[in-house]
Structure formats: structure tokens, C-alpha cells
Structure prediction request, 138 residues.
Amino acid sequence: MVVVHEDEGRALLESDSPWFGAHALIFRPRAISALGPVLSNNGELLPLSSGADELFLFNATRVIDALDECASSVTRFSSGRPMHIQRHIFRPEMLGGADLFKIPNLTVSPAFVSERVVQLWKDTRLRGLDFEEIWRPR
Prediction:
């Protein structure tokens, strides 16, 4: 893996979580130290070969079938399999207080995090991820 440090001649800000995609979170040691128990309870960290940068791919192993497909807004393939979810509605009773998880409904699921994880990220002043609220339990 190659970490890009500049774009079109402009230096990029260093991130505690260099972006690869919502489905594959990458963390530096500082983020792993701050999020340790959340990460270890919900997945595994896999070292990446990246030259001078010490990086780890987080593989979320907690998969929860919590999406209420009928109440959510879902675009489907002709086979009926979900392609994209525009509006997420989760079944709270299925989440059981989970802090970090994926859903089985999508072939490549993004990682979903709880408000507790977002607050921990902010409280420890980690840099590089922005969070978008997609659902709030009633």
C-alpha cells in the first residue's frame, strides 16, 4: 500500500485513519491505542506493508443482520439483492449496544459505528475521519 502525502502539489494533512473506503478502515498506531477495546471486540487488525508508515487494516468481524429492509430505502439489483441503501433503518433490538459492525445485506458493507465511537474519536482528538449520522434510534 502506498500512502499519498500530496495531491496536485499540495501537502495533505496527516490522518490517524488514512482513507481507503468506508468498507476498509485503516488506522495508525495512535488510533489503535485510543480505540483499542472497541476494535478488538469487533474485529481484527491486519498489518499493511506500506513503507515508512505503520498502518493496519481493520477487518470488522461483527456482522449484525439489523437492517430493516422494508422500512429502509433500498435500491436493488434485478436479482432483488440490495445494491445501495439510501436511508438506513435499523432494528434496535438486533444491535444490542454494538459499537462497530457491518451488515450482511450488502456484498461490501461499510463499517457502522455508534455515537460512543464517534465521541471517543473526538475526545481523543484523532484526525482524519468525518462521521455522518445515518440513523438515530427512537
